[in-house]
Amino acid sequence: MIKNIKGTKDLLPNATYNLQDIENHLTRFMHLHGYGEIRTPIFESTELFTRSVGENTDIVNKEMYTWEDQNGQSLTLRPEMTASVARAYIQKQMWKIEPISKYYYIGPLFRRERPQKGRLRQFHQFGVESIGSENPEQDAEVISIAYNIYKMFGIEDISIKINSLGSGNIREIYSNDLKESLSNFKDSFSDSELKRLEQNPLRILDSKNEKIIKIINENAPNIFDYISPTDKKHFESVLNILDTMGIPYVHDNYLVRGLDYYNQTVFEVISNKLGGQDALCGGGRYDKLISQLGGEDIPAVGFAAGMERLIIAMNLENNESTSTDIYIINNEISLNGVSMLLADNIRKNLGVAVYVDTLRRSLKSQLRHSNKMKSKFSIILDAKTLDENTVCIKNMEKNSQDIIDFNNVVSYFESE
RNA sequence: GUGGCCGUAGCUCAGUUGGUUAGAGCGGCCGGUUGUGGUCCGGCAGGUCGAGGGUUCGAAUCCCUUCGGUCACCCCA
Predict the structure, then answer these.
(1) pLDDT band at A33 (very low <50, low <70, confident <90, very high)
(2) In chain B, which nucleotides are within 7 Å of a protein Cβ?
């Protein structure tokens, strides 16, 4: 038997039902905020990700699905969206067309990780990117959107962590000092932690190892002491606006993000119900990415949210079954054509869902199926009554029936 | 990538110290006299016991390998 690839999932109608509903809400929500959808290809030139996400990140080092195309070009299934959005923005030279571009996206991403609940190899993210404003109100807008989306879906048990990484070469200076401050404690570090301290020192800050956390708390410098007065002011303005908007947050000095392109504001929305994979969404500012990839010097801020984690947090993994409004029961094979014609007429004129059996089931079975599909009405076609030009319409909830003229079926439902 | 736990019908599981034709509930399908659903009753269909190999007279049960799931780490959404 051929099976799906590890870390991928098939979604059948009872699972996609809720997903479509969520997507509709997100689309509507973003429209209300002035953001439009962007869709980019799911594979890109490998170089795009090595240059934006960072050579020393795990994503680029060991998690990308990369292959060589027939012409020798290295291609990669996208492991994240921001790089693609930036690439498209630059390619279309959007800054010449409008001073600010606001995008949202929903789509599949690919990372070759060990699967876990809420972490797949093909997973889906919803995300927002606002490109063009350097102002704190833009940070606040993006963060409030993230927060309000979870509120919209009724997810209460969440908290926002926020921090600033400063700008310019602060990141490097701080990283070096951090490395130095911990150099006396190398005995307590595991091999992988030492490697991390070497290659991507900031990441050591969100270690889950109790011992390391203690050492950091007692010895690590505070990045907030490094960032410039301008950056500090920017960060405080963001917090002020969040306060005014009534959005709760926690300033976490040790929050850093794994991707290289982040600077200044970074944030995460955490669910308290998700266990290990508790980050519902993460994002921040990436003011240098556009220029670094060959565009103008244009600031930007955004976030990405995991759809699978959203669905887990909503506790909605399987719910609704397919339903219909009207079920047409044909009692004789010769009436198939009439049934389907009637179904088309009702769909066309009333825009409601009409189901016709194609399994040649018995009357009893069709009624059972009609009931299972939660139909409001069943129309029973029968050769005898059709000779008299009438059909039987059964109200499934009231268990009442009407005999009406075949030509009046549509108008019958219009009055219902 | 590292480590722990798990893998029997579509789903949730039972299956005694290895011993005949592997079970239940739910779900699915059909039917309960000639054209009526939801409740009720009856019947039927689904499993090479994740896969491959080994030990044995005999394996769902023991051993090895492998695949998949799950949890922690790693990382991140």
Answers:
(1) very high
(2) 1-3, 28-32, 35-38, 67-77
